[in-house]
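Handout, section 4.2: multi-component inputs.
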Amino acid sequence: MYSNNSLIDEKSRGVYVIAATPFKDDGELDLESVDRLTDFYLEKGVAGMTILGMMGEAPKLTLEETTAVMQRTFKRVNGAVPIVVGVSHASNRHVKSLASEAMDLGAAGVMLAPVANLKTNEQVYNYYATVAQLLGPDIPICLQDFPQVTGVHTSVSVINQLVDDFEQVVMLKHEDFPGMRKLSQIRQEASEQGRRRISILVGNGGLFLPQEMLRGADGAMTGFAYPEMLVQVCALFDAGKPDEAEDLFNIYLPLLRHEFQYGIGLALRKEILHRRGAISSAYVRRPGPLLDANDHEELGRLMNRLERSLA
Amino acid sequence: MYSNNSLIDEKSRGVYVIAATPFKDDGELDLESVDRLTDFYLEKGVAGMTILGMMGEAPKLTLEETTAVMQRTFKRVNGAVPIVVGVSHASNRHVKSLASEAMDLGAAGVMLAPVANLKTNEQVYNYYATVAQLLGPDIPICLQDFPQVTGVHTSVSVINQLVDDFEQVVMLKHEDFPGMRKLSQIRQEASEQGRRRISILVGNGGLFLPQEMLRGADGAMTGFAYPEMLVQVCALFDAGKPDEAEDLFNIYLPLLRHEFQYGIGLALRKEILHRRGAISSAYVRRPGPLLDANDHEELGRLMNRLERSLA
Amino acid sequence: MYSNNSLIDEKSRGVYVIAATPFKDDGELDLESVDRLTDFYLEKGVAGMTILGMMGEAPKLTLEETTAVMQRTFKRVNGAVPIVVGVSHASNRHVKSLASEAMDLGAAGVMLAPVANLKTNEQVYNYYATVAQLLGPDIPICLQDFPQVTGVHTSVSVINQLVDDFEQVVMLKHEDFPGMRKLSQIRQEASEQGRRRISILVGNGGLFLPQEMLRGADGAMTGFAYPEMLVQVCALFDAGKPDEAEDLFNIYLPLLRHEFQYGIGLALRKEILHRRGAISSAYVRRPGPLLDANDHEELGRLMNRLERSLA
Amino acid sequence: MYSNNSLIDEKSRGVYVIAATPFKDDGELDLESVDRLTDFYLEKGVAGMTILGMMGEAPKLTLEETTAVMQRTFKRVNGAVPIVVGVSHASNRHVKSLASEAMDLGAAGVMLAPVANLKTNEQVYNYYATVAQLLGPDIPICLQDFPQVTGVHTSVSVINQLVDDFEQVVMLKHEDFPGMRKLSQIRQEASEQGRRRISILVGNGGLFLPQEMLRGADGAMTGFAYPEMLVQVCALFDAGKPDEAEDLFNIYLPLLRHEFQYGIGLALRKEILHRRGAISSAYVRRPGPLLDANDHEELGRLMNRLERSLA
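Output:
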């Protein structure tokens, strides 16, 4: 419906911002803030958006809310940038119906994390292969590799095999930690073995973005609340200026590191977005992290220090 | 609507069977088998039913399907026995809406497992306390203590504190493993400290049912595919015949142990229910365990051995 | 020194009992009970012994104590049966020195569990391959596959690759749970792919011994405190009498299931061995499980029931 | 023997550097580098040292090596600063003997991490309480709270109870992540409830050192390979100059974040110490992380950038 007629593919690059899902102070979905936040991201120059990921609190939405967030975002973006939709779910049937709904609305592709309790390479491969077959070759897939939350470890050989076997696997959200060698191995083995080179966008808030760009990343897929920095850093790397890129990155690193804290990081991110005027409330659905007075003061101090550094 | 006008409470005892959720071979919900399975359980003499638990594949249902299973089961049971409804969910809002729907349909209470990633006693207590306050004192709660799957460990002191602080906490589905000392501690501390004595129904397929009855359990809440044995064992314990009870239990123990296997246990259970004519298909939603030829033959051999033992 | 000149190999079969390590009531090593327990095991007809495994509390021994247990056991066994020695350790150097010491004393081979935090197939393979190369082709290795304790999952393909690459990998202590399909897969893939058929001895107290023998196991490597049952069951399977074997097994199943409880199972096992006169004290080194009055009474009741069943 | 006659206590503050354990390229202990590294740390102005912790590869040393590292370090320090010795072990008997040996050599106290598989508050408390009683009131204890590695979560209430019950619990190595609220809670509850205020030194490489100092930390106990920065930051905080402290900290933050990577972080740390001339080899005992050419180049680039920033 609102597609820009483009799908994600192996050439996708730049910053795909992981969008927060805004709620009102009473926990209800805040669709007006969906508009405002979308505008905020677009103004900061993101190359794409990823909605309904883990940081989008997708598991805490009802199906109706999921649909509402999708529709509102697609309408507001209106084809300006490609949108990837998170479709991870305990049931493959649900993954398929979510993916169909997303693609019908104009999604550029879907992001898929593995279900829990996959242990061996074979189990991880089989999970993804089953879903890839179910979705078919026309729905581009971004593999979400985030073992810190899923508990599932996806080895380089599994990623390689999926790339070899399924043309729709075009992107990796690289979020293993530590994961830099993994990134280099994927690039090296693709090069040496004549394998298709997929798009790799890095997560973890971008904590290692400069190092990862130097190792062959194509950009970032993360939700750091100052996406303009990520955009500029990627642009400087594209312009062949890695040191300028890293100088800029380092100015934001203290705050980025602060937001990196698992769990409470989401509350911090939403609070920054709220303070920056991008959403009307920093509410996180329960059970979820809450900021106390110390957290607020600490965050304010770090934001002030950043502003002074940028001045 | 279909209530027998009774709620679970501290006196609840006997076998509350964990109901499987039947699907057709294509994965669609099989509501006719919901009827058939309900009849099967009632014929076996269960004291109650628990629907939409983990073994009921609740996380793999859509909201519409969840409602359909509830309605069909309540209608078929028609007040014959109390029904507990599993309402565990990542979002407290969802827990509340599921619980309201269940109670409106005539549920006797709700079963609640903790969300993931609760680590300390305080975190576990706070999770349950928040939800208990949200649901209010009129909805009886069965705590589901199943760390093997949830990863959350609920200590005796947390259970005691919840019992002290929330009158609606009336039942424990005891499924920690090993967990027998925990059961004894709860009983002993209630007795010594004048605490309210709640109902404790044991899980894990009933693998330690005789030992747990001797330690003060009030029955079983589990889905072993021969619920008639669980019913008879509990009745024999009630009649003061623990050795006869255990003799009977031991006849079924080889098969019970077989079904105890995590993961594939659900597929085995559904296959037995299918072979016993209680459901039309043994289908488990994907991703999920599948039986192969060896598994089928092995199960058949064990079922034959059981039948010979009973003859 | 005390070797029976035989090493474990692909043909090894029967019951290799996992030996407890006896302590006095004050926690000191009890070498006289090492003798007594060794005699007990030999009298029960075990085909081999495995010392210094996890259930042997090996991580709680000093190096001097480790050496003392080895020497005493080898001397007492005096070549009567092969002895496998557990050599798992955080440091490969230590694995090597332990293995050398064991082989010099006359060990038939070593048992090796992986270190913690190995996640992917590649990591697990590389760990074992590195150690196998370090130990060299002359030291037979039994892979200990016990993810419930180690947290490491070893897939069938990793086991196959190790068998293909290292002739000294001759045995698998099969203890994954549920793990029966794994056992069948190893056998099937060896047969279909012309791979060397290694010895597979099952663990988990023998909870699924009859099923596992039917799936191709060669025996058991476990520490159930009534090893004579395991010995007879294996003999009956060898004699082509699987139903008689399982009938006998089932008589012990209630107690075997009781001992299966992780953690407290070791205390129960030692208490049974103590009651049977095989060791002078049931002491388990701290921190470790302790039996209380309820546990003692419950165990006594189950032992009495077993004796009545056998009478 | 080499004591400075001082024990750690509630007033201990500043930087207690977690000392690496140096090996030669063949994996043998490198005692000459123990001297060199000790000198390096002392020259950088550390307030104390902590040896034989996890980052000191203590689990990979033999008892003889453990003793050798202790003796060499104590001799070289010669009372210049207090030394805390890590004594964590699977067996309480071993903890006691290690602690006795350390104190006899002049240690200022011992550091103790919990054994694995402690789940509830009661289990964690009981573990520490048992060991504290075993060691007695004369051996000061530093609690090591590092759930990312131990898997054990120690709640604020458990820490408080240990402080209340055992006067020898004088220090917390604060390394939970995210853990800043925990730090604030400990301080606040001590203040509000009149509890003894213990020393809190922070870990995780110091990734949040400025924030933690503002929340009431007394310093750092970590092994960042530029300990002079940690020393100066703590001094600036003591001098009431938090902004200057954080400005300095931020210069090192890119490299500190780099070293923060679990697993490979130890190899990076040793490589930096090697490049800085503090140890003769960066060898890490196997199995352990190895740096490849990319890692070396990346590290060199980051070190060069740091040097330019400091110039």
